[in-house]
């Protein structure tokens, strides 16, 4: 019964948190705008993002090219729009993989305990001993530059926080009366974990996922900047900044606009994550 009440009350708590936190509406609006742009990129982009025209090389922002052109004569606005697809795809899929694997390991370690818990947390401590970007750089360099390898590299770097967040409430929940009642009724550990424990701690994992998706997008941009992201000529925000870095003094728009896109996306995810956190934790709700 407690699990049912908890789940049913979450939409109301989320709406209350959004109503009290006006900045969260800005984050939600920005995120929806970015997602809309990514979904409808073929219709919104004014030019082909891969079409080169040396005659228009390094054109400043104008009526024809709203955000200017790059060193190959490609439209920056079109590449920026298509780049949102890669950033959101990498961020979402990488965090989804990390969330699934990390939560499963955390629940198993917290519920079973013993040697499995010690082994899991030892591996987590090893992963957390490396900075996220450095660990992602090492993995991406070993796997090679591709979209799939980039997602795998970022997902591995983000597993550890989800293990910790899933493990802590699992340890507390397995001592609760409704779990003890389930054991008395003969429920299997798999059923207790999947049906009774996971629904009561998944909200914490979702909040962490929204916040770490911003980190995943930053990591993707950083890896793309140093050439370990999606291979060219595919447009990504990180690779666009890298291409414009060589002409930063003569063509400022090449680095400024992709940087602003990353900033707005990360800001939107952080604002929305704060609202989700307020909805989950009553102690953090605004008065």
Automatic annotation (TrEMBL):
A UniProt-annotated Pfam family: OppC_N
Domain ABC transmembrane type-1: 84-273
Main location: membrane
GO terms for biological process, alphabetical: transmembrane transport
Compartment annotation: Cell membrane
Keywords: Cell membrane, Membrane, Transmembrane, Transmembrane helix, Transport
Transmembrane segments: 23-45, 88-113, 133-157, 192-214, 251-273
Membrane topology of this protein: Multi-pass membrane protein
Assigned GO CC terms: plasma membrane
Entry similarity comment: Belongs to the binding-protein-dependent transport system permease family.
Protein name (record): Peptide/nickel transport system permease protein
UniProt source species: Pollutimonas bauzanensis
């Amino acid at each position: 019964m407690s699990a049912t009440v908890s789940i049913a009350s979450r939409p109301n708590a989320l709406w209350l948190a959004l109503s009290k936190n006006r900045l969260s509406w800005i984050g939600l609006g920005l995120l929806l705008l970015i997602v809309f742009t990514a979904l409808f990129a073929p219709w919104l982009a004014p030019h082909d993002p891969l079409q080169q025209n040396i005659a228009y090389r390094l054109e400043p922002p104008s009526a024809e090219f709203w955000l200017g052109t790059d060193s190959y004569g490609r439209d920056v606005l079109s590449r920026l729009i298509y780049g949102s697809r890669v950033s959101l795809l990498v961020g979402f899929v990488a965090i989804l993989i990390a969330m699934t694997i990390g939560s499963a390991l955390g629940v198993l370690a917290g519920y079973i305990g013993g040697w499995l818990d010690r082994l899991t947390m030892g591996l987590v401590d090893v992963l957390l001993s490396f900075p996220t970007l450095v660990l992602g750089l090492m993995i991406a360099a070993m796997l090679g530059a591709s979209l799939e390898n980039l997602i795998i590299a970022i997902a591995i770097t983000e597993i550890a926080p989800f293990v910790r967040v899933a493990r802590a409430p699992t340890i507390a929940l397995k001592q609760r009366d409704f779990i003890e009642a389930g054991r008395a009724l003969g429920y299997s550990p798999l059923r207790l974990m999947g049906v009774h424990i996971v629904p009561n701690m998944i909200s914490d994992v979702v909040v962490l996922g929204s916040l770490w998706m911003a980190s995943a997008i930053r990591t993707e941009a950083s890896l793309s900047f140093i050439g370990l992201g999606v291979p060219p000529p595919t447009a990504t925000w990180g690779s666009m900044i890298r291409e414009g870095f060589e002409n930063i003094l003569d063509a400022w728009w090449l680095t400024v606009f992709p940087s602003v896109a990353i900033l707005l996306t990360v800001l939107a995810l952080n604002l929305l994550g704060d609202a989700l956190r307020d909805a989950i934790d009553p102690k953090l709700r605004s008065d």
